[in-house]
Structures are given as C-alpha cells and as structure tokens.
Design goal:
By secondary structure, the protein is an all-beta fold. It has one domain: Jelly Rolls (Sandwich), CATH 2.60.120.10. Helices cover 0% and strands 56% of the residues. It has a 7-stranded mixed beta sheet, with no helix packed on it. Strands 2-3-4-11-6-9-12 form a 7-stranded antiparallel beta sheet, with no helix packed on it. Strands 5-10-7-8 form a 4-stranded antiparallel beta sheet, with no helix packed on it. It is globular and about 45 Å long.
Length: 236
C-alpha cells in the first residue's frame, strides 16, 4: 500500500478579493512539483466566491470538470447552450473534449457561494463535449457512500469520460465501513469536507486530503460527524 497525505494547511492559497481559493494540487500561481496530480485527478480547488462575482467566459479542452456546490447558488453558462443554477446537493460535470467556453457566477449578491471544482484527465481525448447535472437526495448518503460520478452511461451519478467513481458520505460518529477499490489500476483520494475520519487508521481532519493506492480494500471510520468525498480514479 502506498499513501500521500495533503494536510489542509499545506494547500496552495490565493485570495483575489472576489475569490478565495485553496488548491490541493498545483494550480495557477501555486506550483509544487510534488503536488501535480493524484493519478488522473489533476485539480481539487476549494473556492469561495463573493456575492455577484465570478469567472467570466473562458475556454477548456480535454478535461473532465466536476463542480460540487457546498453552499449558495452558482450560475453556469456555456458554449453548448446550457444556462443553469447549481446549488447544494447538485453535482455538475462538463466533459470539455474538443473544446468549450463557460462562465460561473455567484447567483446571489447578498451571500457567498462555496464549491469544490475538480479536474480529471479524460480517458479518451478530443471527444464531443457534453454536459450533465443531477440533484442528489442527501438522505441517501447518511451512513453510506452515495455514488455521484461514474463512467456508466445510464448510471446513478453524472457521467465522466474516465474509469472513475466519486462518492459523498454523511457519516455519524462511530460509523465504520469497508470500501473496495473499483479496479486494480485505481487508487482512492479522500477529501474531508467537514469532520474527522480515519482511513486504515490514518486520521484526517477538515479539508485534509489523503491518497491511497496499491491496495484492494480500505477501512473508513468516522471519529466525529463527517462529510466525506471519496474519489476512486485510475493511477496511470
């Protein structure tokens, strides 16, 4: 078993006034050659956007871009003709493929919006771009792992162009479960949104990240009420 630990206070940080962003992996002006990616997981940004502010239209290509709102309402528009609002319990994916443009703004002027933006290298390059968004029932992740992203065309999660699965769990103190890695070539990256959890005995706190690979199964135990994001991704 191999592991890598990224404590919350070691992340890259950029505060632009309208945007306060923490970077688990190298991004923009934050560069650490030891923290470029975890397998195909390339970006894990923890963003807070001030009221009425946001990202103007900008391009992406050959990247799977997942947004998970934690608080507030995020307004999205893109060159594929999508104009939507994503909020807590929604998950959005853009499979950028051959290229798209999109913008993201805080829908509300009187409150902040916070969300996780995650980039994953695609399995196949230069595909036709697509968009997917789903709302998930939070009751379905109480003391269980709820599938929110998968590579299944008609699966429960939003569809990703990669052999990856993402789960969210809201775990009560003392809850314990075993997680079986989906493929021998995959590793698992844990990100603690809130709370404290132990993975194979390793304690993780709020906003800590922990990657584990070359392992078949993992033990997860919540030391406190915990909101956990689990990302099962190819390592090559």
């Amino acid at each position: 078993m191999k592991t890598v630990l990224h404590k919350a206070n070691t992340r890259g940080h950029a505060n632009h006034g309208w945007l306060d962003s923490h970077h688990t992996f190298s991004f923009a002006n934050y560069y650490d050659p030891a923290r470029m990616h975890f397998g195909v997981l390339r970006v894990l940004n923890d963003d807070v956007v001030e009221g009425g502010m946001g990202f103007g239209s900008h391009p992406h290509d050959n990247m799977e871009i997942i947004s998970i709102p934690l608080q507030g309402d995020l307004e999205h528009r893109d060159s594929m003709g999508n104009g939507t609002i994503i909020k807590q319990n929604d998950v959005q994916i853009m499979s950028a493929g051959t290229g798209i443009h999109h913008s993201e703004f805080n829908k509300n002027k009187d409150q902040k919006v916070s969300f996780l933006q995650i980039w994953v290298f695609p399995k196949q390059r230069n595909t036709t771009p697509y968009y997917d968004q789903k709302t998930f029932d939070p009751r379905q992740r109480e003391n269980k792992l709820q599938l929110i992203v998968s590579n299944e065309t008609h699966g429960e999660g939003v569809r990703i162009n990669q052999d990856a699965k993402f789960y969210l769990g809201n775990l009560a103190k003392g809850f314990q479960t075993e997680y079986k890695v989906s493929r021998p070539q995959n590793g698992v990256y844990f990100f603690v949104i809130e709370g404290e959890v132990s993975v194979n005995g390793k304690t993780l706190n709020k906003r800590d990240g922990y990657g584990v690979w070359d392992v078949d199964q993992l033990t997860i135990e919540a030391n406190r009420p915990t909101e956990l994001l689990l990302m099962d991704v190819p390592m090559n």
